[in-house]
DNA-protecting protein DprA (Leucobacter chromiireducens subsp. chromiireducens), 301 residues
Amino acid sequence: MSTRDKDLLARVAMSNAVEPGDRRLAALLAETSAAELIERPETWLFENELHRYMTASSASRVLDQALAAGITPIIPGDTAWPAQLADVENADPLAPSQPLMLWARGDVPLLSTQSVAITGARASTAYGEHITTEIAAELAGQEIAVLAGASYGIDGAAHRAALAAGGKTIAVLASGVDRAYPAGHRELIERIAVDGCVVSEMLPGTAPTRWRFIMRGRIIAALASAVVIPEAGVRSGALSVAQLAHGMARPVGAVPGPVTSAVSAGCHMLVQQGTARLVASGSDVLDMLGGQTDQLETKEA
């Protein structure tokens, strides 16, 4: 068995034992390999986690079943591993760690291409969905992938608009990539798996939890070249995605709405804080991306 295969099996087992973003395990992995750690579970598992320990043979079965279902496992060091995920930790040493591994269905190289995350309110308004559709369609027309979380509301509108425009879209799930959530978006998620990419750090078959939704935000922020919030309330999880992206030096845009609209209050707050710039169209988002490209070219020079 190759070193890569041993590392892969170890990371499959670890993914079952710990929750996403575990900094304790990330610190250990910076000093030793996953394959070595998996032989000594007592060094990285708390006592109340031992029941979730997965043996190498169990991890191998999970991997075989995933491969048979057309699911691609990706680990750090693979050519398909998105290098930008490291920005999660680079932005803040106390931030949750980057994923132990990813599972993907569809166009895997899409994960490393330029993309814009469009995310926001689940209980979106017709106004929010209209501007989301316009922005996503324009980005898709410029061959920029649209990334979202496949949720109801703004996320679903972004995915649908990108697909309708013949563009590419990426869905980041808080569940396993073979477990459509929300269930009402099963058909949409299956289509994204064919015409785009569905990705998650969770083992296939895993159900989402509140913590996993929170941790999913760091993947959305890190994978994206920029983040746009068309509508979001002041307690929306989309605001944490925007804050994370801002911390990683990603451009963030927020769409203004009526001052009386609760689902635009979060967008207004982001602009007031200086976390986001005001955007009102796809052209504004493209301008925002252009500024990011100029910054990258300056750094490289």
